[in-house]
Amino acid sequence: MNYQSTTLCKLRTISTFLVLDKNRHCWSTEIQKAADFCLSLASQFTEQGYQVQSIRIVSNAFAEYLNTQDINTAKADLYYLSELLNTIKSDGLRIRFAIGEAKTAHEISLLPELIQSYGDLCNACVNVPLNEDGLLDNQLIEEAARAVVKISAITPRGEGNFNFTVNFNCQPLIPYFPASYHEKELGNQYVIGFETPDLLVQVLNDFNQSRRVNQHHEFFKDYEQLMSEALQYHVTAVNKIRNDFEQKNHHNDFTFAGVDSSAAPSKDCASMVEVYKQMGIPYFGASGTVEASALLTRVFKSVKEMPLVGFSGLMLAVTEDRGLAQGTIDGDFDIRALLTYSAVCGIGLDTVPIPGDTSIAKISALMRDTGTMAYRLNKPLTVRVFPVPGLKAGELTAFESDDLCNCAVLTVP
Q1: What structural domains does the chain harbor?
Q2: Which of 68, 97, 151, 294 has the smallest count of CB within 10 Å of its CB?
Q3: What is the pLDDT of residues 18-59, one digit of tens each?
């Protein structure tokens, strides 16, 4: 089976996690160390045929190093930081930066204007905990919902919400943005994140071409085994390259924390919808979608001999996946369905376009539903919704970002 080609498995990111403090003079050194490390490791992967799509740098909570007295002081520090990032020679690789988490209402209130000004160098998240009564912190949720609404109003077409998410039950060291954050007690670490929809489609297509068994449970068992073997093959190969690199570079400033095995679909690879179709589901959202989603989650969790961090599960990013975007236009699924699938997969409501006039109360309720599932089922889930200014449910977006597919706006029930 032809799954060993490195072209089928891309490395979405090498993400470094570093610690910054109030001493601005140290920022340049720390950021350059992270960039140099990422670029050196990326070149090793490239030499072995693996494409690295981006390098990402993630900091501890931004209030620990930015002056958050007010929006002007925060902008001044972030301007200084962005100038440092813009001087990095990245060999054509995309560089993205996450400023870490916002922990208070005041910090959340700064995010809309910071994101408006600095975009992809200002990815941020809010981690919502349970209170002493086992209930979600609704004050924090409402502050986050206000930020979502403001971001949609002050960034073109509301696209700034690409850089902001609300996390529930998410641990540090997620390599994918904007859910990524770091804790200074953990020191400098790095994580590798994958992009594997092309690999999964190839494996399933090859098997289906030769399949003779018609028993549902038999070929679903084979699907799981074959996808797990293919994923493990590439994880093992990537880990060997990483190990060899570390052996040659004994004085690394970053400690390997693990891999995020999520498929992480994008506009530039096969759609996860095609994976479902290869498993006999007529379209994503049809009966059988939950079962197939659970199987895929088991595949991503099956990686052996390697620490799994981050989501390491099934990602369904609506506006980053061409097939899912088309599914919104075809009416194949709605927000309720996405929440249902979150029970057996790994990310929650991600890049979901909603009507521009959706109220803060409705967005907050959507977040509480997702958060309740995250803690009840003990899994990491996030909410990243895009209220699209001027659009109603069913109307089509006109996003201009290279990261986003256009799709139909979904109703918030």
Answers
A1: 8-190 (3.20.70.20)
A2: 294
A3: 999 999 999 999 999 999 999 999 999 999 999 999 999 999
